Amino acid sequence: MPESRYEVLALFTGAMVGGSLFIMATGSLMEFFSSALHVSQTQLGCILSIQMLGTVATVSVAGVLTDRFGDKAVVFWTGLLMGAALIAASLVTNFAWLIAWLLVYGLGYAAVTPAGSHAIIFFFAKSDRGLAMGIRQCGVPIAGVVGSLVLPAIAAHFAYRGALAAAGVLTILTCSVAAALYREPQELQGERISLRTMLLEMVQIARESRLILLTIVSMILICAQLAMMGFLTLTFMRVAGYALPVAVSLFTISQVAAIAGRLAWGWMSDHFFASSRTLPLAVACILVAFVALAIANLGPGTPLALAALAAVALGFTAEGWLGVGVIGFAEIGGEEHAGSALGVGLTWTFLAAMAAPAIFGAIVQVYGYAVAWRGLAALEVLGVIPALLASSVIVALFQRERAS
């Protein structure tokens, strides 16, 4: 072994923090975009959606390339691409050009999750993978905490363009350091077969029924995460009437809760749910639905303590689940094809993520925030069905009934 598994986990968690810094802070920067660019609610949603569009377009390719060339190379080159795109976006003042460069950023962001998942599968036993992936996936809400504290402060002095440039530099730095320090085992340096063969294998993996059901529930849950990222701050400002610093602070609290959520959901998946990756997601869907209904009832007289509780609950549930979903995808593919399985599952998951902010923003513009959050709650309830169908517990009970 080139290094301890905990060193590997730390390196790829750091790379995930850097790669996710801007996308997770987008919601806390929405007011700066709105003031500087004078755009509608739907266009604000597109700032986040366009990043997800780039991710949707290339996440399958990113998974295949990670299987082919290994985690180390993909982390380095995609980190460079993301950072350069953010720096380029900071140099333009036109909304269309901003969207174009954020699309390029999204193309690189597609590899943030697949690159590193091979190492988790390789270095950790199945009974520990849920927690390990939960720790690694904490990089996303950690990026939300850091980004929502640092980038709005920079934007307050240097406008949103300064925040973009700072995020670009930090992205390049963290991904480059992780790639330079990671001593990749020979077994993980890529499968030396043709890309055509790997694409055919990915198509075969895509037909796996567990993968299909896990993808559906992930698509539903990711909508809640993107609604939180894009519109939780604005909901606190424009519905509850809080000032910008208070609303940003509440969003930051939600990201702290998401860190705890990713650890807790990963641990519960390993121990409480006996390594099931789908039963925890069924529970998460139910909890997210309740929290979304609570947020729909916010108003100008809402006490700050209740708003903080809602932010904590939403971060813990709507964002905490993702590590469990990711390790579920990776385990279906195994050590050799974890990237391909992740590529298939995340393509559809990120497709839902791409559409969610724009649709949520459009509903807000026409019907208001309360209707949008209630609609999200109804959607989350539907996610329980594919989660239960994919569960090995449900399958075992079905087989037992047929045998009797």
Task: Describe the structure using short key phrases.
Growth Hormone, Chain: A, 17 helices, 84% helix, mainly alpha, 404 residues
Provide an overview of this structure:
The chain is mostly helical and 404 residues long. The chain has a single domain, classed as Growth Hormone, Chain: A (Up-down Bundle), CATH 1.20.1250. The chain is built from 17 helices and no strands. 60% of the residues are buried. The mean pLDDT is 85.
Mean of all residue-level pLDDT scores: 85
Q: What is the CATH T-level topology?
A: Growth Hormone, Chain: A
CATH top level is Mainly Alpha
The radius of gyration over CA amounts to 20 Å
Short description:
The protein has 404 residues and is mostly helical. The protein contains 17 helices and no strands. The model has no long low-confidence stretch (mean pLDDT 85).
What is the topological layout?
Layout: H1 5-25, H2 30-37, H3 41-69, H4 71-90, H5 95-109, H6 117-123, H7 126-137, H8 139-181, H9 195-206, H10 209-238, H11 244-272, H12 279-296, H13 304-319, H14 322-367, H15 369-382, H16 384-390, H17 392-403
